[in-house]
């Protein structure tokens, strides 16, 4: 209401004094910018924004602008089918779940209690093999109030033994109040090892416990093996939904109803630093599972989701950057509506996390939950034209993956025949190419590496016995192997392999390409020797002690000097001369080219071999 003496309107319409924006006007502005940058060819007659369109590994087109005209399937409401906006109608945050894989029960117990005393709300324990023995669960959980801190097991083949050991620890707690997840997952065992594992014993265990422990989940459908094999988001979703369907079948065969069977399942997904795809993946997964349970004859079910920050995105080099990656992934998992989130410590790719890295991982979640108030709003991404369209597109792509797996006879048959492996390998080939060309950059490794960093050392993780299952990739590994070669060379010879940057022309004309070349060579552990602006680059090369040179200058300086300088460098002893720029037949004496979009791994590997680095 307008008060006396004031001129404010009754209804404040923000920006009402500005004209309504039109898409055509935006397109003209985009075209102007692209034309100035040289990215818009004169003969191009399509919409200019199409030049800014990108594609995901599932072929989903990401547009530079979304508006209300970009419709998507209705998302519904939180807590109601199809559960896109969340499995629960209230915003209560998520379960802060911490992973422990230490085989020493005393050490595991100390770490477990420290986590629970400092923000963790549940435990994820790897059991069996070279991890914690099932018989040691009691010692590892000594002092843990299991009625307050649920335990989730990852027991491998020993799921029945581990289940019995865990249930023995619930003495004094009513059977109806026992909460946790026993973690039986024969499908993932097959994916990890390549060996067949019968689903029937897991179903029988579930049927035996269902009536006695109504809040206890028994089975996990895990998407991590497919993600870690290099798969796309839709491939991970399709395989997980197919695993869930396989479990529904054996559970109903064991006598459970569809609704009871669905209530025994938990689903695990990878959360990555691509925040929007992670948000969309979790939202799409709930929609897919609701549809599966509905058409299976039950009610549309919400999905119990456990999001884990991706191991594939973690680096061993400059591991501190992993803190940023996992923060973004945790943010995305929370916004996407995950019920539980595990933030892996920043040193998880190196070895056993220490107390400091575990503390940072816990506090990452605490800050997002308590200080950032991320859980204060249900489905904060809901209504975003981009997120809703991405969720819909990803759900449809994942449904196609799922139905194709079903056509192959289900997830077990698709794993046994190699169908899943081949599909994932196709995606990994595309991903590996983008990693090699740095189109998918890895900060601190393929981009902006720090050669002087001191390696972080940790106690080794439990050994993983190689099998015939799906491969396991870390995106940074190829570049890190080159860095390992450089470190070995440094230890043996007292210096790193070097490349001399032969700068042509004044400082302003060579700075950009010299910086590019310096960044590129360091990604392979090669020390760049940059003399700056010099009158005689050949003389500077002789004084540098390097055996390989790289010309750095402008196109104009290349046209005027490149051939003569390259010849001089070869006469001065250079065994190879590269040029920082696009390949051209007009250059003589040049043995290789380094430019934006080149195969950086190939350039670095070739340079190390030329320098004789083993």
From TrEMBL:
Single GO biological process annotation from the record: propionate metabolic process, methylmalonyl pathway
Domain (Methylmalonyl-CoA mutase alpha/beta chain catalytic) ranges: 56-124, 161-456
Superkingdom of this protein's organism: Bacteria
List the InterPro entries hit by this protein, alphabetically. Answer: Cbl-dep_enz_cat, MeMalonylCoA_mutase_a/b_cat
Which GO terms label this protein's molecular function in UniProt?
Answer: cobalamin binding; methylmalonyl-CoA mutase activity
Q: Which GO terms describe its cellular component?
A: cytoplasm
Q: Which PANTHER family match?
A: METHYLMALONYL-COA MUTASE, MITOCHONDRIAL, METHYLMALONYL-COA MUTASE, MITOCHONDRIAL-RELATED
The entry describes its oligomerization and partners as: Heterodimer of an alpha and a beta chain.
Name this protein carries in UniProt: Methylmalonyl-CoA mutase
The record lists the lineage as: Bacteria, Bacillati, Actinomycetota, Actinomycetes, Pseudonocardiales
């Amino acid at each position: 209401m307008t008060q006396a003496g004031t001129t404010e309107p009754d209804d404040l319409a923000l920006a009402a004094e500005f004209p309504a924006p039109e898409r055509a006007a935006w397109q003209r502005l985009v075209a102007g910018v692209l034309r100035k940058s040289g990215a818009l060819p004169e003969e191009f007659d399509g919409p200019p924004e199409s030049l800014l369109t990108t594609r995901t590994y599932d072929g989903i087109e990401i547009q530079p602008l979304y508006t209300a005209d970009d419709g998507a399937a209705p998302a519904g409401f939180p807590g109601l089918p199809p559960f896109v906006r969340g499995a629960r109608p209230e915003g209560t945050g998520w379960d802060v779940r911490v992973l422990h894989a230490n085989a020493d029960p005393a050490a595991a117990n100390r770490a477990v209690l420290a986590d629970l005393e400092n923000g963790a709300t549940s435990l994820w324990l790897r059991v069996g093999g070279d991890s914690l023995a099932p018989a040691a669960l009691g010692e590892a959980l000594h002092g843990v109030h299991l009625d307050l801190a649920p335990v989730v097991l990852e027991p491998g083949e020993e799921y029945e033994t581990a289940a019995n050991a865990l249930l023995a620890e619930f003495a004094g707690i009513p059977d109806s109040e026992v909460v946790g997840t026993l973690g039986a997952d024969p499908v993932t065992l097959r994916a990890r090892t390549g060996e067949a594992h019968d689903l029937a014993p897991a179903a029988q265990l579930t049927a035996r416990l269902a009536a006695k422990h109504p809040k206890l989940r028994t089975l996990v459908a895990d998407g991590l093996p497919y993600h870690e094999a290099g798969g796309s988001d839709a491939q991970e979703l399709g395989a997980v939904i197919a695993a869930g369907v396989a479990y529904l079948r054996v559970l109903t065969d064991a006598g459970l109803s569809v609704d009871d069977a669905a209530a025994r399942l938990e689903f695990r997904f990878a959360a990555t630093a691509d925040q929007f795809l992670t948000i969309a993946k979790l939202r799409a997964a709930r929609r897919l599972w609701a549809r599966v349970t509905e058409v299976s004859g039950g009610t549309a079910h919400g999905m119990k989701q456990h999001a884990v920050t991706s191991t594939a995105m973690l680096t061993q080099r400059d591991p501190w950057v992993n803190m940023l990656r996992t923060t973004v992934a945790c943010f995305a998992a929370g916004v996407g509506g995950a019920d539980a989130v595990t933030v892996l410590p920043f040193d998880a790719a190196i070895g056993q996390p220490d107390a400091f890295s575990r503390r940072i991982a816990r506090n990452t979640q605490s800050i997002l939950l308590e200080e950032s108030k991320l859980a204060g709003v249900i489905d904060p991404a809901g209504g975003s034209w981009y997120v809703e369209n991405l969720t819909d597109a990803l759900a449809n792509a994942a449904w196609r993956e799922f139905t194709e797996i079903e056509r192959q006879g289900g997830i077990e048959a698709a794993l046994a025949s190699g169908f899943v492996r081949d599909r994932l390998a196709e995606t990994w080939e595309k991903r590996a190419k983008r990693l090699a060309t740095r189109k998918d950059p890895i900060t601190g490794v393929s981009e902006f590496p720090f050669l002087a960093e001191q390696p972080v050392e940790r106690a080794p993780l439990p050994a993983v016995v190689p099998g015939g299952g799906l491969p396991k990739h870390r995106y940074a590994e190829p570049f890190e192997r080159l860095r390992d070669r450089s470190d070995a060379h440094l230890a043996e010879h007292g210096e790193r392999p070097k490349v001399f940057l032969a700068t042509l022309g004044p400082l302003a004309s060579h700075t950009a390409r010299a910086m590019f070349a310096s960044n590129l060579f360091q990604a392979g552990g090669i020390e760049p020797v940059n003399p700056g602006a010099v009158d005689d680059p050949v003389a500077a090369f002789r004084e540098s002690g390097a055996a390989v040179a790289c010309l750095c200058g402008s196109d104009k300086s290349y046209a005027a000097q490149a051939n003569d300088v390259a010849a001089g460098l070869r006469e001065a002893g250079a065994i190879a001369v590269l040029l920082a720029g696009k390949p051209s037949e007009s250059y003589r004496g040049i043995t290789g080219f380094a430019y934006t979009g080149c195969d950086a791994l190939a350039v670095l590997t070739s340079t190390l071999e030329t320098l004789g680095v083993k």
